[in-house]
Amino acid sequence: MYNQQAYALGSKRSTIREIFEYAKTRSAEIGAENVFDFSIGNPSVPAPKEVDECITRLLRETPSVALHGYTSAQGGQDVRAKIAENFSRRFGVPLTAEHLYMTCGAAASLTITLRALANDGDEFLVFTPYFPEYKVFVESVGAKFTAVACDKRTMLPDFQALERALNPQVKGIIVNSPNNPSGVVYGEKTLRALAELLRKKSAEYGKPIFWISDEPYRELIYDDYTAVGCPMGYYDDVIVCYSYSKSLSMPGERIGYIALSPSMKNVRELYASVCGAGRALGYVCAPALFQRVVAECDGLTAALDVYKRNRDLLYNALTEYGFTCVRPDGAFYLFMQSAETSATAFCNRAKLHELLFVPGDDFGCEGYVRIAYCVPTEKIERALPKFRALAKEYGLI
Length: 397
Hints:
CATH superfamily of the largest domain: Type I PLP-dependent aspartate aminotransferase-like (Major domain)
Order of helices and strands: HHEHHHEHEHEEEHEHEEEHHHEEHEEEH
CATH topology of the largest domain: Aspartate Aminotransferase, domain 2
CATH class of the largest domain: Alpha Beta
C-alpha cells in the first residue's frame, strides 16, 4: 500500500532532529533560557549585511515576474557564470557555467550526484565520523553504503583501512572537510594521499573512482588552514557539492550547487546525467531569488570570529574539566569523548543538567558526542557550570 523504506524513514526522525524537538518541548516547560541545546547545526550569527541588502535591492529593482519566474532547469546561465568565474579565481580551476548545476542545498546536491552516478551493484564509501544522512542518501539510490574507520587519535582518514575497503564495485567516496561532526579539516597532506590512492586504484580497476566533496563548511576554517585548496587541484574525478547554508547563515533558503571538475573524462556526459537526475528527482530550477542572491554574495562569510571565539571558549573549558575533545579547526562542532562507555547513556545523564548534545553512534563513532557550538556565546558561558557539574559527577575533576 505504501513504500516500506519511505515509511521507516518518515516514522522516525533522525536522532539529531529528535533531540532538537525535545529541546523545543523542554523550553516550553521550563523556559528556553534554562535549556542548553547543542544538538543542531543551525547558524546563530546573522547573514552578512550584503545578503539582506542584495535581497532588498532585487525586490525593489527587478520586476516581480522576472524575479520570481522560472530559471533554466540547471539554474540561470548568468548565475552559474558568476559563481564559476569566482570559483576559478579562488581555486585556480577553469570552471564554466557548463560545469555547474544549481540545487536546493547540499542534500539535493548529494542526492542528485548519487542518482547521476549509481548503477546496480555500485558501492559508495565514507570516512567515519560521517553525517548520518549519507547512509540514507546512498541507500535511496540502491547502492551499498560502507563506512571506513578513521584514525581515532586524529579523526583523519585511515588510509590502510581505505585501501582494504576499495574494490572494483566502488563508484565513489564521499569526503566531508571541514568535517561534521568532528570539525577536523583535511590538510594538504591528507588530500594528496587520498588523490594518490584513488588514482592508483582507478588505474587498477580501469574505471574512475569519483571523489564527492561535500563542502557546506568550506568557508568555516580557522587558524592556519585557509590555504588547504580545492580537491579539484589534487584529483581529476571530483564532484563538489556545496551549500550556502552555513557560509551565509541562511540554511532555510535551501540553495547550493554541484560543480564538476573540467578535468574529468566525459564531463559533458556526466553533466547531462546530473541534469537527468535532477529532473527525475524533481530538483529543477532552484529558488530563483536566492540563485541571484548567492551569485552576488558568493565568497562572503558570516561572522567567523564568533564561531572561533565559541570554539576556543568551549574547547578550553571542557579540556580543563577533564573531558577529552578533538580540537576542531573548522565548521562549528566539537567531538567529545563520552565519559562512559555508552554515549547515549552519557547524553541522557547530561539531560539532567539540561545539556543536550548528540551521541556519536549515528555518526559511525561510538563513545563520542557531538556538541554544536553555533549558539550565542553567552549560552556557552551560562552552560559551563553545567558542564563542570557533569564532569564532577564522573570524577573528572
